[in-house]
Amino acid sequence: MRLFSTTPLLHLLILSCLFSHVHPLCHPDESAALLELKDSFIIRQNASVDPLAYPKVASWSSKEKDDCCSWDGVECDEHNSHSLNLAHNDFNGSLIPYQLSHLPSLTYLDLSDSIFAGQIPLEISQLSNLSFLDLSQNQLELKRPDFSTFVRNLSKIKYLSLSYVDISSPVPSFLANFSSLTSLRLEHCGLYGEFPIDIFQLPNLQFLVLTKNTNLTGSFPEFHAECGFHGPLPSSLSRLSNLQLLELGRNAFSGTVDFNMFLNMKNLTIFGLSGNMLSVLIRENRTTISTNATLPKFKILSLGSCNLTTFPGFLRHQYGLTRLDLSNNSMHGKVPKWIWNTSIEILDIHDNFCTGFSIDVLPSMSLRYLDFSRNSFMGALPIPPPSTNYFDGSKNELSGEIS
Q: Is pTM beyond 0.70 here?
């Protein structure tokens, strides 16, 4: 079990101990619980190739159990709240320790991407003060207890991520009562049934990720808009002004969508419509192509398979854009020169009718991935920057020598 890292891998922060006038002290029960956790870990000295890496828990000793605040990786303050972060460790398929329930003041628990396995213990659901819980990217399942039983007691939760946990159940409707919820991430969980429509109405919701749940069905509400769009993607979506991430890709949405309604969602930074049966209409005007500061500042934008015919002009001033997917459209002409004024790292425009780039040597210093295959590029092969590690220009009409 690896508890090491090139930057020490065990990031353990415990916030909350009883203060004295001299030094903050842990409660004895909290010290004992931490020592139980230490005893459940298998520590191998060769778990890291970094000679400077070390297990932080080596400093935890029963001789000092009345003052865990002095232990390496442990901090205390007067607010009586705990935070435990064991993300990005390698626990080699171990079970999540049930002893975590002995830390009832935990408000923050991150066990993501740490190769835990098996059933998530019921004891975790007894941590009713949790506002942050991330168990994603492991090999876990949530069957006994099931999803509904597990989350019912977590009414203070703000951030909940169970992505890639095998849940295989419907989404409980009472989540719509969790008014503090800002982020709900349930990617690839085997969810099925009807997604509770009232969850979309949560007042503080900013992130909702439900991708790769092929048996999950549902529809969007009208959000009490004054005039609604009578299609699968109502214009009243723009009322969700706090959303920063909206991923609707790879579903079965259809019809014509006015993209300008999404430009009214000022906080959007990650947005995806790729892989549906939509026709996206982008009405280019002075607002959408200007430097207007009220437009969203996209970082990731996916508009693949959206029946676009031209390169979206509103991207001209999206300087923070790092990933752009415009594949499987019907765009003609040359890719505009101004695209290289962005922070683009990934550009995917395969399966279009583009005839080339406006310049032969691509000036971007951040480009890592470029796919312009299956287009109508003519002439010399474009020269990518040295940063590029994926380059696909196949099935075009290129000619001449390879530089």
A: no
